[in-house]
Design goal:
9 helices
């Protein structure tokens, strides 16, 4: 553990809590969810420092009463304990009323000497995350159990200092949440603009009167089938897997070297469009500005010359209509988009000069979104640095009285 001020105590979390436990999936699973009722908090609702009730599930009052041991109280700390979001924590605030949790979310109810918002900050900080990772390193990668959570070492400053630290970090959480909301609004605006521009609902005056083509995908898109075998070919190329593409942002998060990879990959060229064909990843798309290879679970698409530009195609694959057409799936274990079905889906297509005009407008939208995403990254980085200093006592805060 870090070196803490002498007047701070280091305690096991179980010594500071009256409850550590999670809920269950209601009988009937998703089929039992209702449009209204008692909110059921799931892992997707627990973000870092924020409870997001968008797309929250609801259960009946009767089911809520059956799950009486996991009824939430205001100021309960929530911690995701399974899956990709493991370790995210927030506080259940006042004003929501009754609610419950499923088995993927742990309720931590603190004793008076531990301020819930301070604990939430500790869990989201390096102090908490390193302990979560350490328990996962032992081979139990499915999740945290209650004994492990109770064994967390928690720094405990005097209560007034806990409150002050939590208040300071709360202002950063509010700024981050505000920026996230702004980005979401910009993305919704872009999606609406795409829908109107790419369907011809809104036209630029200089193109009014030009008729659009109505073509099946197969007549204006080619699917690149060129393969790359890392075991036989020695090219040093960047490799993109599905996890390297951010969901619904068109950004490449990372690449790896193709050398050392075992499976055969798809080749792509600069400017071609990559589209995740596994059903859970239909909203993963990107237009790399370099040559490389990608997972065989990613389609490599290109517009046909003089009919559809790659830039225009990049925006077309983001539309609801294209994704809905790709959502026709095959297979049972991991359903995939069906090219035979998608290739026959028809879309209206402007001529190339109008395509270029549409692309310029949508690029401006993307640039604005990217700028705010960079600001969001900076805010998160600043908050992490501040957390490290405040939660270790490296920087002390003045406390009134």
């Amino acid at each position: 553990m870090n070196q803490f001020p002498i007047e701070w105590h280091i305690c096991k979390l179980k010594q500071l809590t009256t409850k550590i436990g999670s809920g269950v999936t209601p009988s009937g699973g998703r089929e039992s969810y209702l449009d209204t009722g008692v909110p059921l908090i799931r892992s997707q609702n627990v973000l870092e420092g924020v409870l997001n009730l968008t797309n929250v599930a609801f259960i009946s009052q009767g089911q809520h009463d059956v799950m009486s041991k996991t009824k939430l109280q205001a100021h309960d700390v929530l911690l995701n304990i399974t899956g990709a979001s493991i370790g995210r924590s927030c506080v259940f605030p006042e004003g929501i009323g009754e609610a419950n949790v499923n088995q993927h979310v742990c309720i931590i109810r603190t004793k008076p000497q531990l301020y819930p918002y301070f604990l939430c900050s500790v869990l989201n900080s390096d102090i908490g995350q390193k302990q979560i990772v350490s328990f996962q390193a032992g081979g139990n990668r499915q999740g945290l159990n209650f004994e492990q959570i109770g064994a967390f070492d928690i720094p405990v400053p005097p209560l007034p200092e806990q409150r002050k630290i939590a208040q300071i970090l709360g202002t950063w959480d509010a700024a981050i949440a505000q920026m996230e909301q702004l980005i979401a609004a910009l993305q919704r605006r872009k999606q609406g603009l795409m829908q109107r521009l790419l369907t011809g609902e809104v036209r630029f005056p200089e193109f009014v009167g030009q008729e659009w083509n109505y073509l099946p995908v197969v007549e204006f898109v080619t699917r690149n089938s060129a393969k790359f075998d890392p075991q036989k070919q020695n090219d040093e190329l960047p490799c993109i897997e599905l996890e390297h593409i951010s969901q619904e942002t068109g950004q490449i998060l990372d690449t790896i070297s193709v050398q050392g990879q075992q499976s055969i990959k798809n080749r792509f060229s600069k400017g071609q469009v990559l589209f995740g064909k596994l059903r859970p990843y239909l909203r993963k798309y990107v237009q790399p500005q370099f040559d490389g290879v990608c997972s065989s679970e990613i389609w490599v698409l290109a517009g046909k010359k003089d009919i559809c530009t790659n830039d225009y195609l990049y925006y077309l694959v983001q539309t609801h209509d294209f994704i809905a057409a790709a959502n026709a799936t095959t297979g049972t274990k991991m359903p995939r988009a069906d090219w035979a079905h998608l290739s026959q889906k028809c879309f209206t297509l402007p001529w190339e000069d109008e395509q270029a005009r549409i692309v310029r407008v949508l690029r401006l939208c993307d640039n604005e979104i990217t700028l705010h995403q960079q600001k969001l990254t900076a805010l998160r980085r600043q908050k992490q640095g501040l957390m490290q200093r405040l939660l270790t006592g490296a920087v002390r805060v003045p406390v009134d009285g």
